[in-house]
Specification:
Elements: H1 4-22, H2 25-28, H3 39-61, H4 68-91
Helix pairs in contact: 1-3, 3-4
Length: 92
């Protein structure tokens, strides 16, 4: 099955939106006390979520391949910041 540019961008955007949605689970549900209602974790995750939501929106809006490299770098930076949120939530 071949998705094409529009289909591939849509699938990638869906995964980013799912990641944004799931990032609030450790904050809202008491799975681990280190993250439950931790404002440090939430602040850093909100930055990550804003970046990933921007990437998802750009992927849905355009099929131009010129911006994909920049969006890839931005998503990798967002994932790194998200990792820092988990570390900060665990150790701060």
């Amino acid at each position: 099955m071949y998705l094409g540019r529009r289909g591939a961008n849509t699938v990638a955007a869906i995964f980013y939106i799912v990641a944004v949605t799931l990032s609030f689970v450790p904050f809202a549900i008491s799975i681990d006390a280190a993250y439950h209602f931790d404002p440090v974790y939430l602040a850093i995750v909100l930055v990550t979520d804003a970046m990933l939501a921007y990437v998802a929106a750009r992927l849905l809006i355009t099929t131009d391949t010129r911006h994909l490299d920049r969006l890839r770098r931005l998503s990798l930076l967002a994932i790194f910041i998200g990792l820092m949120a988990f570390l900060a939530g665990a150790f701060v």
